[in-house]
Structures are given as C-alpha cells and as structure tokens.
Amino acid sequence: MKAVIYRIFRLFIGLIFYAVGIVMTINANLGLAPWDVFHQGLSKTMNISMGQASIGVGLMLIISNSFLGERLGWGTICNMFFIGFFMDILMFNHLIPIFDNWILQLMMLLLGMFLIGIASIFYIGASLGAGPRDGLMIALTKKTGKSVRFIRNSIELSVLSLGYILGGFIGVGTLITALAIGYIVQFTFKLFHFEVNKIQHRFIDDDIKFLGRMISKKEDHSEVE
Which domain holds residue 68? Predict the structure, then answer.
C-alpha cells in the first residue's frame, strides 16, 4: 500500500510541475510550443479554456491510441485530465507572472522547459503509463516502422500548422521550444540519473486481470468452505 501511495504521490507532483512548466512557457509570451498552439487555436475557436482544450485533445488521443493497440495506464488518464485542470487553476488565478522584458521572458521560457523535464521524471517514474501525446508517438512509430524523430516531428508540425490556422500564437519561442525541448528534457534526465528505458509501467488491464484473479480465488475459497 505504501508503494501505491508513493507512486500516486509521485505522479501528481509530476502533473502539477508539468502544468506549471507549460504555463510558464505560455506566459513567457514569445510563442507557444506546437501542442499549445493547437490548444490555444481550439480554445479560441470553441470558446473554451486552454486547459479544457488540452483535456479534450487528450481524450481524443486516448481513444485513438486504444484503437492503435496502445495500452493505457492510470497515469495516462490522470495526465489527460489533471494537467489541463491544473493549467486552468494557474492561469485563471494569475499564479504565474507575465513579464514585458524579453530577457525575463526568455528566462521564463527556458525555466519552464526545464521544469517540464523534471516533471517528466516524476510522472514517468511513477510507472503508471505514458501521457496521451507520447502514447500517440509510440503507437504510430510501431505501426509505421518510422523513426521516433520522424513521427514526433510529423505530429508536432501537423498540430502546429492546424493550431496556427485556428488562431494559435506562433513566435520565436515556438522555434526555441521545438528545437530545445528535447535537449533540455534529456539534460534533466542525465542530471538526475533518470533512465527511462528501465521503467516498467503498470497498465490498467494489469489491474483488471489482478482483480479478476483475486475474485476467482475468493469464489474458489468460498466453494471449498
């Protein structure tokens, strides 16, 4: 039970940090990351918050990933809902400052990406499944046989283009984020000696099978008595 509580605690710390990192990159006001360009475009088009747009996109991705054969974890579901939920709390209550000085804006953008890297260590390290967007990348890589880099770049270029058409904000920060986020996340992984390849995720179907076995054992025990 202690192990389960620890994993859930670690997951939510990661999701909170991830939301803070995203809002920092948004409030830097230098241009949004590709997925956030898409979320902002949707929020303007549908008159909803960016957090709600993030949740809606995450839900659609989870459904798509399921059809593509990707297994879901409880962390996948929590990632889909709570990052958008925490983003709205931060943005509606103005908990992350907005600066006019471009040096401070650039520092906030870089710090936000660094925090996203730390958040990834927490939530991936909880071993409860990848996020919906990472799940799509993994599923398409398996299905197409293309490289992760090609699939990720294709996905982000697609959502960036669609988000821009819908009215999302593109700027120099978009280019910085697209080029630097992978390197910054990799740097944080090395800094904290986090080896993502060694993570063994527990998926929802694992828990369903486990509960099924427990119920069967109880029924067998009752019949013996």
Answer: 2-224
- C-alpha span between 14 and 189 (Å, rounded): 14
- What pLDDT band is residue 221 in, cutting at 50, 70 and 90? low
Residue 211 has pLDDT above 90, yes or no: no
The two tokens of residue 4 are 């389960």
Q: What is the mean pLDDT of residues 72-99?
A: 94
Alpha helices in 48-171 (DSSP H): 50-67, 74-92, 102-125, 132-144, 148-165
Please tell me the total count of domains within the chain.
1
Which letter does DSSP use for residue 199 in this model?
Answer: -
What's the token pair of residue 165? 């058409």
Provide mean pLDDT across the span 87-91: 96
Q: Is 193 left (phi over 0), alpha (psi -120 to 50) or beta?
A: left
C-alpha 75/C-alpha 90 separation (Å) is: 21
Task: Find the largest Cα–Cα distance for the chain.
Answer: 75
57: its two tokens: 């996109």
- Cα–Cα dist 32/168, whole Å: 8
Terminal alpha carbon distance of the chain: 29
Burial class of residue 44, CB neighbours in 10 A (0-12, 13-18, 19+): middle
| Per-residue CA distances from 58 to 33, 138, 176, 216, 224 (Å) | 16, 15, 24, 35, 47
pLDDT, one tens digit per residue, over 45-85 is: 999 999 999 999 999 999 999 898 888 899 999 999 999 99
